[in-house]
Design goal:
single chain; mainly alpha; Protein RMD9-like, mitochondrial
């Protein structure tokens, strides 16, 4: 029985590992298309689960040698990368109201890797140097750095000399060196570890040199990094170009000397190296952040963003372009935070420029819409809203959620505008076939009302009045003028140079990739600052009260479309636990008159109770 399981294990791991591997390739200047990797279906993930089941069955036997277990670790590591690549290419769009496929797979792979790591530390199984490398690298890519360091340190201190030596192997130490430095190990100790590991072999190991280069870049020892890179270049054959590519990217994203980083960036874009560099967006983003943090030079940031966008071209995956744009607009809005008029004019120019590079997609405007809340200008929000139509972009539910959320950045928005945004969102939810109102939809409403009220209460040290202290009237937006940006479609619409016409305007960013972190469904606007014309104390508290009441009335009217009673509890008493401004008003919930809150004709949304 055990022999058959070993055969099944071998076949399962080997065939699935082969399925997930990306073939090596050299750069062909005549065809610079980026290989998208293997096609993966559900059978791949089922095979990984089968392999882990067989591993569990065989752990008590002596048949699981280091090579077999190491292949399994390699397979699990490939699974992480495959899932990440599919996510980047947006082949899957996780449902953030339930456990997404991406999250489930990541959790399963992480759990499996932890099982194997624990078995190594308990001396139940052994790994070879390849397996140890993949194990440490997998935890690094999961961003579990403390766990990564703990596994490595416990392994080198193991009473099992075989395990200790395996984790001191150059192939493994090359992975851990930069992690150790970034987590507080002094550079001189990094050098000693490098020398100790290097002494275990009689040749120049590329893994070890790459790790030392990255640690040197982090420490600012650029001469050491350049010296090792030169030696690595001399030692590398075409089959080992991958090490050079990885190191080249490190110089772009991790080098603190911006002139050196710029040199490596230019060489990558100009194809001046013997190896083809797939300009990974994470390194470009890091380069942008390094430029901004060191120089605060927005023009330099803009040039790198523009050149990179040209390099990626019009056919790049949305996840990549959105990730780059997310970082760029973080810097953009930080730069123009206190200069709205100039910033808005630059923004309009950037929109036109970007559309000439590649057709604008929905995530591009979603990112802008999320971040422009820092300006607290309803006219700019309307401008972006109209831009979707101008560029013929059909808004998904993501955009409708952000538009509703954005109302939480405006002090003087009328309640009927918030209600209108809510109705637009509900109609869209119904149109796409949602059976109940999703958590993300409720979160958008909360941010437009309760989060706004809580922020204002915290900043002004105000208390929300009860119903007998408040006049049940809304403060009109006409009482507080919102500046209109020069050249906006609101202030000027008759110029032939205008790219927008004045069209009356009636989150949850898609989280497929970290790229869309800008539109975090629960807190994208947490740090907004109120800049509108101050209202009177009475007007302010009354407006706070009215917006909180609007939230409660909508919740009450639409509670029948909650998933279940637990969701309704979270929206009322559960929200009050987190937002004190709601606590003093919540007792009015049962008696609220909701006759002024309409429900449109719905087809998919169904009453749950």
């Amino acid at each position: 029985m055990s022999n058959q399981k070993i055969i099944d294990f071998e076949n399962c791991v080997s065939s699935t590992l082969f399925m997930s591997q990306t073939p090596r390739r050299k750069y062909n200047y005549a065809n610079s298309n980026i290989h998208n990797g293997p096609s993966i279906d559900n059978s791949f993930w089922n095979s990984i689960q089968l392999a882990m089941k067989l591993y569990t069955d065989l752990i008590l036997t002596s048949d699981l040698n280091s090579d077999r277990v190491s292949k399994l670790v390699h397979l699990l590591h490939n699974g992480l990368r495959t899932n990440r690549n599919q996510l980047t290419k947006m082949n899957k769009k996780p449902d953030y109201d339930s456990k997404s496929f991406h999250k489930e797979i990541t959790n399963y792979l992480c759990k499996s890797l932890r099982v194997i790591a624990n078995d190594v530390l308990l001396d139940k199984i052994n790994l070879n140097e390849y397996g140890a490398m993949h194990l440490i690298t997998a935890f690094k890519e999961l961003l579990l750095f403390d766990e990564c360091i703990s596994i490595w340190q416990n392994s080198i201190n193991s009473k099992n000399n075989y395990t200790s030596n395996i984790f001191l192997n150059p192939r493994v130490v090359g992975v851990i060196l930069p992690i150790l430095y970034d987590h507080g190990i002094p550079y001189d100790q990094i050098q000693l570890l490098y020398e100790k590991s290097s002494s275990m072999i009689n040749y120049f190991h590329p893994n070890l040199s790459v790790g030392m280069i990255r640690a040197s870049l982090s420490s600012g020892n650029i001469p050491m990094a350049l010296s090792l890179f030169e030696k690595l270049s001399q030692e590398s054959t075409e089959m080992k170009f991958g090490y050079l590519i990885e190191t080249h990217l490190s110089f772009i994203g991790e080098c603190k000397d911006l002139e050196v980083a710029q040199l490596f960036f230019d060489k990558a874009l100009n194809n001046e190296m013997p190896y083809k560099i797939d300009l990974q967006v994470s390194y470009v983003k890091s380069f942008l952040n390094n430029i901004w943090s060191q120089k605060k030079d927005f023009n330099h940031v803009y040039q790198i963003w523009y050149i990179s966008s040209l390099h990626y071209g019009k056919n790049v995956n949305h996840g990549i372009s959105s990730s780059l744009n997310d970082t760029f607009f973080n810097i953009f809005f930080e730069h123009f935070k206190s200069n709205k008029l100039d910033g808005f004019n630059h923004l309009k120019s950037i929109i036109i420029t970007y559309n000439n590079i590649k057709p604008i997609d929905e995530p591009f405007f979603n990112i802008i819409l999320t971040k422009c809340s820092i300006w607290h200008d309803s006219n700019i929000i309307e401008f972006i809203d109209n831009s979707y139509d101008y560029y013929k972009i059909e808004k998904t539910i993501v955009s409708y959620r952000i538009l509703l959320k954005s109302m939480g950045s405006i002090d003087n928005v009328e309640n009927n505008i918030i209600l209108s945004r809510w109705l637009d969102l509900v109609i869209k939810s119904d149109h796409i076939g949602q059976r109940f109102i999703a958590n993300a939809d409720w979160a958008a409403l909360r941010d437009a009302t309760i989060t706004w009220a809580q922020d204002l209460s915290n900043k002004s040290n105000l208390t929300v009045p009860s119903s007998d202290q408040s006049l049940l009237v809304s403060v009109s937006s006409n009482d507080t003028a919102v500046p209109t940006p020069i050249g906006s479609p609101i202030s000027k619409t008759n110029s032939n140079n205008e790219i927008f016409t004045r069209v009356p305007s009636t989150e949850n960013i898609d989280f497929n990739h970290p790229a869309f972190a800008a539109a975090n469904a629960s807190g994208a606007f947490d740090d907004v600052r109120m800049k509108n014309k101050p209202m009177t104390l009475y007007g302010t508290t009354n407006t706070m009260y009215q917006r909180i009441i609007l939230y409660l009335k909508i919740v009450k009217k639409y509670s029948k479309f909650c998933r279940d009673t637990r969701q309704l509890t979270r929206l009322t008493s559960g929200t009050a636990l987190k937002y004190s401004c709601l606590q003093s008003v919540l007792n009015e919930f049962p008696s609220l008159d909701t006759s002024d809150i309409p429900i449109p004709q719905l087809h998919s949304l169904k009453q749950s109770f």
